[in-house]
Task: inverse folding
């Protein structure tokens, strides 16, 4: 096929790649990294069967772990950030002789329009907050990893954290990123003091702010990136991600306030009911007032003045 390059390991034309848009930088996602992509899948006649773009939601997967078809693990490992490419995948590198009913028939060659948005290393931090990332440079051998107490040779920086070493395969070379997002934010800010239109500095500060759980500030930096370069699709996806986080935060805040108001209303109702129990029931005492006066013998004044009004024994006035 014109402009397609055979990138299959055996050079059997199983995976053909054609670059539609060049990416930036020199790095490609290593095995084990979590890659974020947009894609559209079609048959060779152009009929579409799947698209993350139609769903307006990027797709995340672990590269090289068998979570996707072989052609993806092979092809995406050759791509850079922001790169967009067409992968033509033979059945042996896609869904094989069985297909994937009911969508993919048996022995079907597929074509994917894929754009690499971003990737991050394997998260080794105990809190799974991205504080420690591992990016594999040279794959290790076998499946064994060091046990507690094992003697491991490594760099002084990594020796400070045995958690990092415990995940290594035998003879593996990895790059470890120890997240220091405040420093990354401050470094990007310093770069912007020198060059207020530095797109990369805005992007990196936005990334740092996003990891510092400040999506409002991060979105402002990503918007500045788009003002400088409106075609940066990586930044567009990051901005969409910020908006999703902000919407989620607003939803959670509304739930908290709603529960708070319900709680206060319930407390007020209970307080009013308690106050009512403390007030005397005046009406229940009517008819008991002057009980002693009604039961005593008439005095001299009352005997001499029979026409006065007296209370009868039921507590009602009666004309004598």
Result:
């Amino acid at each position: 096929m014109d402009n397609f390059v055979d990138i299959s390991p055996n050079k059997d034309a199983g995976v053909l790649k054609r670059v539609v848009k060049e990416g930036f930088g020199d790095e490609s996602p290593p095995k084990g990294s979590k890659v974020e992509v947009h894609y559209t899948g079609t048959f060779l006649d152009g009929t579409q069967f799947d698209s993350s773009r139609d769903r307006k939601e990027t797709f995340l997967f672990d590269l090289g772990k068998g979570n996707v078809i072989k052609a993806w693990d092979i092809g995406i490992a050759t791509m850079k950030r922001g790169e967009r490419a067409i992968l033509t995948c033979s059945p042996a590198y896609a869904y094989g002789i069985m297909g994937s009913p009911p969508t993919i028939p048996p022995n079907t060659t597929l074509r994917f329009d894929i754009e690499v948005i971003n990737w991050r290393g394997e998260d080794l931090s105990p809190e799974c907050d991205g504080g420690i990332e591992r990016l594999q440079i040279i794959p290790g051998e076998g499946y064994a990893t060091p046990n507690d107490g094992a003697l491991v040779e490594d760099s002084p920086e990594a020796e400070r954290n045995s958690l990092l070493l415990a995940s290594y395969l035998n003879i593996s070379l990895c790059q470890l990123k120890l997240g220091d997002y405040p420093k990354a934010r401050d470094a990007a800010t310093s770069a912007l003091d020198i060059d207020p239109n530095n797109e990369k500095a805005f992007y990196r500060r936005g990334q740092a702010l996003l990891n510092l759980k400040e999506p409002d500030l991060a979105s402002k930096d990503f918007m500045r990136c788009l003002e400088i370069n409106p075609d940066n699709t990586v930044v567009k996806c990051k901005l969409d991600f910020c908006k999703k986080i902000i919407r989620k935060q607003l939803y959670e805040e509304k739930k908290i306030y709603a529960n708070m108001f319900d709680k206060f209303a319930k407390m007020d109702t209970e307080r009013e009911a308690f106050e009512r129990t403390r007030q005397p029931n005046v009406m229940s005492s009517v008819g008991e007032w002057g009980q002693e006066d009604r039961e005593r013998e008439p005095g001299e004044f009352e005997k001499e003045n029979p026409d006065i009004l007296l209370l009868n024994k039921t507590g009602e006035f009666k004309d004598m």
